[in-house]
Amino acid sequence: MAGAGPTAVLSSGKKMPLLGLGTWQSKAEEVYNAVKVAIDAGYRHIDTAWVYKNEKEVGQAIKEKIAEGKIKREDVFVTTKLFTAFSRPEHVRECMMQSLADLGLDYVDLYLIHSPLCFKYGSNPFAHAGNPEEVYDEVDYVDTWKGMEPLVDEGLAKSIGVSNFNKQQLERLVQNCRIKPAVNQVELHPYLAQQDLVDFCKKNNILVTAYSGLGAPALPKMMSNKTDDPVLMEDPSIVAIGKKYGKSAAQVLIRYQLDRGVSVIPKSVTPSRIQANFDVMNFSLSKEDLATLAGLDRNLRYLNGERFSTHKYYPY
Ligand SMILES: NC(=O)c1ccc[n+]([C@@H]2O[C@H](COP(=O)([O-])OP(=O)(O)OC[C@H]3O[C@@H](n4cnc5c(N)ncnc54)[C@H](OP(=O)(O)O)[C@@H]3O)[C@@H](O)[C@H]2O)c1
Known about the structure:
The protein has 316 residues and is an alpha/beta fold. The protein has helices at 28-41, 55-67, 89-103, 141-153, 167-175, 195-203, 236-245, 249-259, 271-278, 287-294, and strands at residues 7-9, 15-17, 21-22, 45-47, 77-82, 108-113, 157-163, 183-187, 207-211, 263-264. The longest helix is centred in the N-terminal third of the chain and has 15 residues, at 89-103. Residues 22-24, 47, 114, 163-164, 185, 211-218, 233, 248, 250, 265-270, 273, 276-277, 303 line the site of NADP nicotinamide-adenine-dinucleotide phosphate. The active site is at residue 52.
């Protein structure tokens, strides 16, 4: 994975580039170009999900870059996620096979349980206009995990992990699994440092991936009921740190995670931003600047998922 930037070795023994391209809310026609621009810029890690409805275009872009000779399949780390309406162990494989077919791949590098929250098979909890409780399902995420493990045995997923798991949920999963979760992907940025969770993951050899690391400035209403959250990329301390290094606030936020040993997957469909977000390999933040960023923690969750607050596995 030459040129991929810093990498981590997962508990599965596989290497994962820490910096990847996020694709949530990237429209199909935009994500195709975004992935191609990202691969040209040096990204070797792409994050998608069944529910993003863009896996076909993500896969098409990867396929073309392989055909061009720019990369080989093994050079690019592809993550996708099991949608919450496939949480019953007997449905896990179905969701995986749909993602593989759409991506046009024989395997993914990382397959994540998208969330411990589980919903009825076939339901769309985000489109559901009524009471969210009508679509809740009673599935233990430890049972979902039992549907994930065979995917590794079959070679369909090189590594498996989780997303949106809190410390208690992870602790229980770690105690009740055959294959340990390699990754936990959660919201993480200076306003939501989650140091306790990060420390627990480090101790248990679980790599943390930061989502919404730029503060998710284009957050859809379904993910939050708040309207007055501060804009992370406009935080004066972050902007001031950037000025010292000749970098933007976005670049400081990305470098912050890399310097903490955390993976980060900024989303963009704008070519200049995709390139700029990767242009973070030529500096690192001083101890003092890292401490300043750590000091901004205010437990602010942009994606608070309030709509599902009555779910038994909330809060994540
Ligand atoms: N597991 C989960 O439950 C979960 C939840 C949320 C996100 N994720 C993953 O994490 C990825 C990142 O999180 P996110 O999409 O929520 O938010 P994010 O990466 O914090 O922010 C993305 C937004 O920032 C803008 N942006 C990107 N680079 C910029 C720059 N250099 N300057 C100014 N604005 C910039 C993008 O706009 P343009 O695209 O218009 O350039 C987009 O609106 C997702 O795409 C997804 O892959 C996972």
